[in-house]
Amino acid sequence: MRELAAFEAGIKLGALFHQFVGIPVSFENVELVEKTMESCMKLQPYVVDAEVKIDKRKLKERLSSFNYTSLEGDMIFARVKVRVENDEVEAVLEYDKKLKYPLMRLLL
């Protein structure tokens, strides 16, 4: 069941990424966006915990003259914990500066 738990964790993070990249975000709604993203992951089967953080430094750098920007993949840190029967895995989505790409990985 560990393989299924790992697969499910990847699905959760992939869905989160593709569902939310591009939404408008500002300092007025950033905490709400983080909590909404967490809540959406927690609704899914097998999820026992989830956390999302948006990089506030990058948010500040990218604000438009209208005081918001579109959420980009390099701004997101997400962690999900999934349990299938007795097997539990934890995975993260985070930006890899060296590869210049947001990657998912299991925490071992």
SSE layout:
Elements: H1 2-20, E1 24-25, H2 30-42, E2 47-54, H3 56-62, E3 69-70, E4 76-84, E5 87-96, E6 101-107
Antiparallel strand pairs: 1-3, 2-4, 4-5, 5-6
Protein described:
InterPro entries: DHN_aldolase_MptD, MptD_sf, MtpD_C. The protein has a single domain (2-107), classed as Pantoate--beta-alanine Ligase, Chain: A,domain 2. With 108 residues, the protein is of the alpha+beta class. It has three helices and six strands. The model has no long low-confidence stretch (mean pLDDT 97). 36% of the residues lie in helices and 35% in strands. The longest helix has 19 residues, at 2-20. It is elongated, with a radius of gyration of 14 Å. A hairpin with a 4-residue loop joins strand 5 (87-96) and strand 6.
Which features does this protein show?
two-stranded antiparallel sheet, 108 residues, 36% helix, alpha+beta, 6 strands, Pantoate--beta-alanine Ligase, Chain: A,domain 2
* CATH architect. name: 2-Layer Sandwich
The CATH class designation is Alpha Beta
Spatial order of strands in the largest sheet: 2-4-5-6
CATH topology name, in short, is: Pantoate--beta-alanine Ligase, Chain: A,domain 2
**How many domains, in number, for the residues?**
1
The chain-level structural class is alpha+beta
Series of secondary-structure elements, N-terminal to C-terminal: HEHEHEEEE
The CATH homologous superfamily: 7,8-dihydroneopterin aldolase (MptD)
Note poorly predicted spans: none
Calculate the mean pLDDT score and round it: 97
| Shape summary | elongated
How many strand units? 6
Q: How would a crystallographer describe the biggest sheet?
A: 4 strands, antiparallel
Strand content: 35-45%
Helix-residue proportion: 25-40%
What Rg do the Cα atoms give? Answer: 14 Å
